[in-house]
Amino acid sequence: MTMQLAVLASGIGTNLAAILKAIASGRLEARVKLVLSNKIDAPVQNVARQNGIPVWVRDHRAYESREAFDAAMLEAIRAAGVDAIALAGYMRMLSPMFVKAYEGRILNIHPAILPSFPGVNGYANAVDYGVRITGCTVHFVDEQVDHGPVIIQAAVPIGPNDTAESVMARIHALEHRIYPQALQWLARKRLSVEGRRVRLSAAKFPVTGVASAQTGPLGPWIVCPPLEEGF
Ligand code: GRF
Q1: Could you tell me if the CB of 181 is within 6 A of ligand 1?
Q2: Residues 74 and 131 both lie in one domain
Q3: Does the CB atom of residue 175 touch ligand 1 within 6 A?
Q4: What DSSP designation does 62 have?
Q5: 15 lines ligand 1 (CB under 6 A)
Q6: How much distance in Å is there from the Cα of 88 to the middle of ligand 1?
Q7: In a 3-state reduction of DSSP, which class is residue 88?
């Protein structure tokens, strides 16, 4: 069955574009019903509109509290008949009330290997810290920032000449592959959570190995669990 998705985003929208591409190609069995943003001028809205997706944009500062803003989002999300929510560069904390309403059905993408470098500047913080490997994480959302159970992570090396921008470009390219994959696992109800560990039930096509390592135009990377065909 097609998963009815809402995407919360406040940025450029490259992850939304990647999700829509995966849907269009039939790899991701979902439909984006609504894109929501708290940033009036966020470019992600254009990506949504160009694809005929309704957009809900409100300035959160016009609401008296985080809960009031989240309640308004929730009302729009419910009215759109949404089953699951993807955060794709949504830069605000969600209230516990919102998380509870869609518990186990909200995913986030973060540009670092959690639990390292949570927060708004994942890429830059990893480069400034001097780590040799960084990457991106898709995880379930809980009430703490960048904290819920981890679904999939991809890693890239940081070389001596790398800058925050060059690392960001590589991570972004991987985000666009692991996020649609994680959402497809959610759509297929293949994810279950035991404590902090996420189990992925058997694939239609057997998954070989625990991780896959590859090298491409952007250099070497590793992803775990491995991406399935098409992602
Ligand atoms: C991504 O890097 C994501 O990891 C972070 O916000 C960024 C959103 O980028 N949470 P985009 O707007 O999807 O291009």
Answers
A1: no
A2: no
A3: yes
A4: G
A5: yes
A6: 6
A7: coil
Other CB atoms closer than 10 Å to residue 10's CB: what's the count?
Answer: 23
Same domain, 187 and 127: yes
* Residues designated as active site: 110
DSSP code at position 145: T
Residues 164 and 220 in one domain: yes
Q: How many angstroms separate the CA atoms of 231 and 150, rounded?
A: 18
Q: What is the pTM of this model?
A: 0.96
Shared domain check, 115 and 183: yes
Range of the domain at 66: 1-102
- Residue 16 Cα to ligand 1 midpoint, Å, equals 9
Residue 133, classed as helix, strand or coil, is strand
Name the residue at shortest CA distance from atom 10 of ligand 1. Answer: 89
6/120 same-domain check: no
DSSP annotation of 117: S
**Torsions phi, psi for 153 (to 5 deg):** -135, 145
- Structural tokens at position 203: 């694939």
pLDDT in tens, 46-92: 999 999 999 999 999 999 999 999 999 999 999 999 999 999 999 99
Please give the Cα distance from 34 to 128 (Å, whole number). 36
Give domain status of residue 146, yes or no: no
Domains: count for the chain: 2
Residue 154 in 3-state DSSP? Answer: strand
pLDDT tens digits along 198-211: 999 976 655 566 78
